[in-house]
User: Fold this.
Amino acid sequence: MKPLCLAVVGFGRVGRVCAELISLSHDLSLAAIVRRAASAGGKLPEPLQHIPVTTHIGQAKDVDAALICVPTNAVAETASQILEHGIPIVDSATLHGDALHAHKDAIHKLALRHKAPAIVGAGWDPGALSMFRSWFALLTPGGLTETRHHTGSSLRHTTMARTVTGVKDALCAEVRAADGNFQRYVYVELEKGADPDKITQAIRADPLFLGEDTQVFPVESLAALEQEGRGVVLDRRGLPGRLGHQHLLLEARFEESVLTARVMLAAARALPGFEPGAYSLADIPLSALWGERADKAERDWL
Ligand SMILES: NC(=O)c1ccc[n+]([C@@H]2O[C@H](COP(=O)([O-])OP(=O)(O)OC[C@H]3O[C@@H](n4cnc5c(N)ncnc54)[C@H](OP(=O)(O)O)[C@@H]3O)[C@@H](O)[C@H]2O)c1
Assistant:
């Protein structure tokens, strides 16, 4: 199958990762990088040096779709310029709620006029995290969602966890659960052959942790975990009732521009199946985001 030819518009954090991921993929190819005139003379990193750089989407050749990676306040104008050429677009503009809805409406009108599909808000948040939030709410109607972007670490608890036999290193974070109570998240790097269950029991049995909700997570490398860009805990508690109490928890540590770029590429793969108009991730079947790997993904993950 012919690869989908993409232009990356704006070569900042997200644009760079998009370009790199496209160049590593088998089903996508990088047709051009579109930059402002002030930056267009700059040298591209090694694997991208053969890629044409233009200052206007109209100068780029053979573009099936464009990934808009410019600052949020420039997305609407850039989208309008690209759609005028009938080129489908993907953006990940960091807009939420009513603002995202208004953006989608405005892009929808342009997309209809220029007869091209557009996918908006396709990043991490908004984007994939919004989908997790939405699924959590669908599964626990009337419940309470809490999103925490930072976790504070507790030195005393970290020190205790490091003394447990089999633990090479530990990091203990305090997080406030939806009901207002504290939870302890203990990340442990284990000695070779150490039993994670025994270590979890030993940590939970220590007087410092007794009576507290303590979750223990073995990790490969604490140093790597601490260096990672960002983290989020999405905590959803259903209403207690006759059908039991559902508690859903997503914990993620990630580099936001990498996850955003991955979602933008997935959205681009879905574009060819869509009629003109604007769509958000909620409008797109998951199988379309997998592109040519849809059948395999269905067998592997459903
Ligand atoms: N949904 C999510 O989770 C998520 C997460 C992160 C970012 N984003 C979105 O991704 C987009 C890019 O973010 P980023 O972190 O990569 O930003 P960035 O590092 O600031 O890069 C933006 C790039 O756009 C170009 N640019 C700068 N000012 C411009 C202007 N006024 N008009 C047109 N182009 C301009 C520049 O590239 P050149 O020098 O090559 O022209 C700049 O490097 C934003 O829309 C942001 O909201 C979404």
The mean pLDDT is 91. The first strand starts at residue 4 and ends at 9.
